[in-house]
Amino acid sequence: MEVKEEFECCGVNRQSEIDDFSLSVWNSTRGSQLIPGYCCKGADYISGILLAGKECTTNPTSLNSYFFEGCYTAIEEAIEEYSSIFVTGSIVVLAVEMTAVIASFCMCRQISADLEHSNNKRKNDNKRWIKHKDNA
Predict the structure, then answer these.
(1) How far is CA 136 from the centre of its chain?
(2) Model confidence pLDDT, tens digit, residues 116-131
(3) What is the pLDDT of residues 58-91, one digit of tens each?
(4) Is 53 left (phi over 0), alpha (psi -120 to 50) or beta?
(5) Rounded Cα gap, residues 33 and 51, in angstroms
(6) Is-contact 19 39, C-beta < 8 A?
(7) Would you state the pLDDT for residue 19?
(8) From the DSSP assignment, how many helices (H) and strands (E) are in the chain?
(9) How far apart are the first and last CA of the chain?
(10) Is the dihedral of CA 115, 118, 124, 129 positive or negative?
(11) Torsion sign across C-alpha atoms 14, 16, 18, 19
(12) Looking at residue 52, what is its pLDDT?
């Protein structure tokens, strides 16, 4: 899916304010068209070629084209809309990761303490066994 279809926009800026297509190859063949055919609602790149000269290109309105919405603004609004969700999700992931790191350090420390206790017990058992053997 193209950006213009996803965000319902045409060009970088609002075409009603700035003509983004004046420096494009399309500009040399535009004639009376204000926007390319692929800026008409429901058009893709291929069908946009067939819409050349139709009403949506020569007399664009909010009903038949994306003439009044630039893609830069549309994308910027989408980022602003979802930024709080992204930040919240990032904080949750960070908290889970930090909890996992702390838990792994605690587990390593407990395993180390258990091994030390086990080694000390084995040494004491060996001393008792040697002492018992010597007494026998």
Answers:
(1) 76
(2) 888 777 777 666 666 6
(3) 888 888 888 888 889 899 998 998 899 999 999 9
(4) left
(5) 10
(6) no
(7) 80
(8) 4, 0
(9) 88
(10) negative
(11) positive
(12) 76
- pLDDT score, position 125: 67
Q: Find the mean pLDDT for residues 83-105.
A: 95
CA distance 99 to 86: 20
| The two structure tokens encoding residue 74 | 């549309």
What HEC string does the chain produce? CCHHHHHCCCCCCCCCCCCCCCCCHHHHHCCCCCCCHHHECCCCHHHHHHCCCCHHHHCCCCCCECCCCCHHHHHHHHHHHHHHHHHHHHHHHHHHHHHHHHHHHHHHHHHHHHHHHHHHHHHHHHHHHHHHHHHC
Q: What is the mean pLDDT of the chain?
A: 83
